[in-house]
Automatic annotation (TrEMBL):
GO terms for biological process: polyphosphate catabolic process. GO terms for molecular function: endopolyphosphatase activity; phosphatase activity. This is Calcineurin-like phosphoesterase domain-containing protein. The lineage of its organism: Eukaryota, Sar, Stramenopiles, Ochrophyta, Bolidophyceae. Signal peptide: none annotated. Pfam families: Metallophos (PF00149). InterPro entries: Ap4A_hydrolase, Calcineurin-like_PHP, Metallo-depent_PP-like. GO terms for cellular component: cytoplasm. Residues 87-259 form the Calcineurin-like phosphoesterase domain.
Length: 311
């Protein structure tokens, strides 16, 4: 169904996904399936000093013929399983910038067994929205639903129901039209927010209103809000002195995106990770549980930035 030229979402996503931080270390086979070469990528991802020293020793023995390929594989497998501590990688708005996403995952030393959580807006504005979705599916990533993801889902459902193409084909329509069925299913599954009780953390695209129970939060605000004014008005507009996160008093730490104007935001109980990669800024991740910040520069500005500022 289309109202006022825009499709209506038939089946909204579940309110919440709970994530328990009980990840397991990867097997050697999983690493082989992920990496593109036999030796160099393994060495790249073994970051701990003791692991690197032992790995270098194994490599020298392998190259000198003192270790067979099977023995080398077994030793590397044991070394990785002993020293690896799987992590959660929380990533800000990607907006179709798949090259920067791959660079960020390498910089975060991503390995199978790690969990990636996107903060929404996987798509739109950037060059490779479809590739970002496919990468997210292939790596079994979680993501919350952003406002641009929401529009793509609406058009996907409209196309499925036989809606005619709009006179002016929007970017969201064009993205929806080229997605495969599995891509659409993945996008439709994205929830409004994700909870991880073991890390006392919440993940949402735009934000929450402090003092309102999670299950009573407004989904549209969770995808669009940026500011809360002194009179309590919640708005998607950028008011420089009134970010919503300044009012969030926990107890959970909220990780959010959507607000490229403010860039990296770090409050006592809230962390904003949208650093404007699609506008030529950076793509930023927070690695949990250490809360280590990692980022990469955009290769170029893909979209002209024209946000209005309010006082």
């Amino acid at each position: 169904m289309i109202v006022n030229g825009r499709p209506i979402l038939a089946n909204p996503p579940r309110t919440v996904i709970s994530v328990q931080y009980n990840l397991t270390a990867p097997t050697f086979r999983e690493i082989m399936n992920y990496t593109s070469s036999y030796l160099s990528d393994i060495e790249l991802h073994c970051t701990e000093k003791v692991c690197n020293k032992r790995l270098l020793s194994y490599r020298l023995q392998f190259l000198s013929g003192n270790l067979t390929k099977t023995s080398y594989s077994n030793k590397v497998t044991q070394l990785i399983e002993t020293n690896r501590h799987p992590k959660i990688i929380v990533i800000g708005d990607v907006h179709g910038c798949v090259d920067e996403l791959r660079s960020l995952l390498r910089r975060c030393n991503y390995l199978p067994g790690d969990l990636i959580i996107f903060l929404g807006d996987l798509v739109s504005k950037g060059p490779h929205s479809k590739s970002v979705i496919q990468l997210a599916r292939n790596l079994n990533c979680l993501s919350v639903r952003g406002n641009h993801d929401f529009e793509v889902v609406r058009w996907s459902q409209a196309i499925k129901n036989g809606a005619e193409a709009p006179i002016f084909q929007t970017e969201h329509y064009c993205i929806a039209k080229e997605l495969k069925e599995k891509d659409v299913e993945y996008m439709e599954s994205l929830p409004w927010y994700i909870s991880c009780p073991s890390l006392n953390s919440l993940f949402v695209h735009a934000g929450f209103v402090s003092g309102v129970r999670l299950r009573r939060q407004n989904p549209r605000l969770m995808m669009n809000m940026r500011s809360i004014l002194p009179d309590g008005t919640v708005t998607s507009k950028f008011f420089e002195n009134w970010p919503w996160a300044r009012l969030w008093d926990g107890p959970q730490t909220v990780f959010f995106g959507h607000d490229a104007d403010r860039g990296l935001q770090q409050y006592e109980n809230a962390v904003g990770l949208d650093t404007g990669v699609v506008y030529g800024g950076r793509l930023t991740a927070c690695v949990l549980p250490e809360k280590k910040m990692v980022s990469v520069s955009a290769r170029k500005a893909y979209f002209m930035y024209r946000r209005k500022r309010y006082t």
